[in-house]
Write a structure and sequence with these properties.
The protein is of the alpha/beta class and 414 residues long. It is built from 15 helices and 19 strands. The radius of gyration is 25 Å and the shape is elongated. Bound molecules: cytidine-5'-triphosphate.
Length: 414
């Protein structure tokens, strides 16, 4: 219920993507929001007010002169208790109206008359040529300058059959953007690198050693960091999870691969000369992954066969590099946050591990109580001792943890 208690005014303008807004309305309701739909006449050509009323549970407004509003001023009254206005889909014409302050129907007049503290988010949806048209780009630049937030658009197949920029974001992406719009941008402009999930160390081509980490905690932290405005790179071992929207995920399998990927990103100032995609070193490194401490020294290239009933293969192990300790030891290391997955004596082991890894903050949890589940409880160890984040779902804990990290990061930069 990430939107509990929020009132969202959802404006629809003309576009085939209106059909996706039925789903978005349901998703917003499920997330706890109260949704008030306002439609342009063009939008009603694509989806009916009846459908939108049924899904939102509220009367739909399409007309400036609607007498159901007592003072007959729907352009004022509909937004006075709104937390956000979202225009989705937002047509080329509506962007132009926003850029010019045009008031020629209920929705456009309502946007111009909105209280200045109510954020306006727009999700463009149009043909690629309409999106790329210089007039549209001029209008988009203008509304951005005016403080309107543009969600997307994405590139891909379009209803008209052409391919390119202009597709409206998908429902789950719009939902993520709307939820994020309510979070303080405490990490705006920061680069955050996160490891998550288990690693998998091969024994032979069909077997390997891994652990019970699901990646849920690391992925929730990546999501929370993105919601706080950070550019997030997520280096993930094998998990069944989708990449959190807005983050850049790199999938790896072994601890060595995770180490190499982390080092590439953490030393991005050096690699920038050869990798044009990476521009800036990291501000924060959060090592959430349950990294295998050992790997099989020489993994067999072929499946190891059982030759008799009593034989057991003799596996020789070597230690994997300690990713967190390697990053923390770098000159100009980012602000490093470690995790400790223990099975007992958490207070003792957590405090000792923070010092051993030489990191300012270490987050302790009981591994087998949390791996694979949706809840967790965390103990934060820093130079001042330890504090607890009580049991909650991983999303809530991730948001709290990002706040804790931000406070400490800001102190180091004062
Ligand atoms: N870690 C890492 N690279 C490794 C092992 C661990 O980056 N090769 C990181 C983890 O991501 C975590 C922290 O170090 O942030 C502690 O991991 P944990 O498995 O709890 O501890 P270990 O260092 O492996 O020590 P031990 O297994 O003895 O408890």
């Amino acid at each position: 219920m990430r939107l509990a208690g929020k009132k969202i005014v959802l404006g629809l303008t003309g576009g085939v993507a209106c059909y996706k807004i039925a789903e978005l309305t349901r998703a917003l309701g499920k997330a706890g929001a109260q949704v008030q739909v306002v439609m342009t006449q063009s939008a009603t050509q694509f989806i009916t007010p009846v459908t939108m009323q049924a899904l939102s549970g509220n009367p739909v407004y399409t007309d400036q002169w609607d007498t159901r509003i007592h003072n007959n001023m729907p352009h004022i009254d509909l937004t006075r208790d709104a937390d956000v206005i979202v225009i989705a889909p937002c047509s080329t014409n509506f962007i132009s109206k926003l850029a010019h302050g045009t008031c020629d129907d209920l929705l456009s007049t309502m946007c111009v008359a909105r209280p200045h503290h109510v954020p306006l988010l727009v999700a463009p949806a149009m043909n690629v040529e309409m999106w790329l048209n210089p007039a549209t780009q001029r209008n988009v630049a203008q509304i951005k300058k005016d403080g309107i937030q543009i969600l997307g658009p994405a590139a891909g197949e379009q209803a008209c059959g052409e391919v390119g920029m202009g597709r409206m974001l998908e429902v789950d992406q719009l939902l993520a953007e709307i939820i994020a719009s309510f979070q303080a941008k405490s990490l705006a402009g920061k680069e955050v690198l996160i490891t998550a999930g288990p690693t998998f160390e091969p024994i032979d081509p069909v077997r390997g050693i891994t652990n019970l980490s699901s990646g849920k905690m690391g992925y929730a932290i990546a999501q929370a960091a993105w919601e706080a405005g950070a550019n997030v790179t997520l280096i993930s071992g094998p998990t069944a999870l989708d990449a959190p929207y807005g983050t850049h995920r790199i999938s790896v399998q072994t601890a060595q691969q995770m180490h190499d990927a982390v080092m590439t990103y953490v030393k991005a100032d050096i690699t920038a000369q050869v990798t044009s995609t990476v521009k800036k070193p990291q501000d924060v490194f959060i090592a959430v992954a349950a990294v295998a401490d050992w790997r099989v020294a020489t993994a067999s290239t072929q499946k190891i066969k059982k030759t008799s009933d009593s034989d057991t293969p003799q596996l020789e192990f070597v230690q994997n590099p300690d990713i967190l300790a390697s990053v923390a030891a770098l000159p100009n290391a980012p602000y490093c946050v470690g995790f400790a997955a223990e099975s007992e004596h958490l207070l003792h082991y957590g405090a000792a591990k923070r010092i051993k890894k030489n990191v300012p903050l270490l987050v302790g949890n009981i591994g087998h109580h949390t791996f694979g589940t949706d809840e967790n409880e965390l103990i934060l160890f820093d130079a001042n001792g330890h504090t607890a984040l009580p049991r909650a779902n991983k999303q809530t804990l991730a948001i709290q943890l990002i706040q804790e990290i931000t406070q400490r990061l800001n102190k180091t930069q004062q």
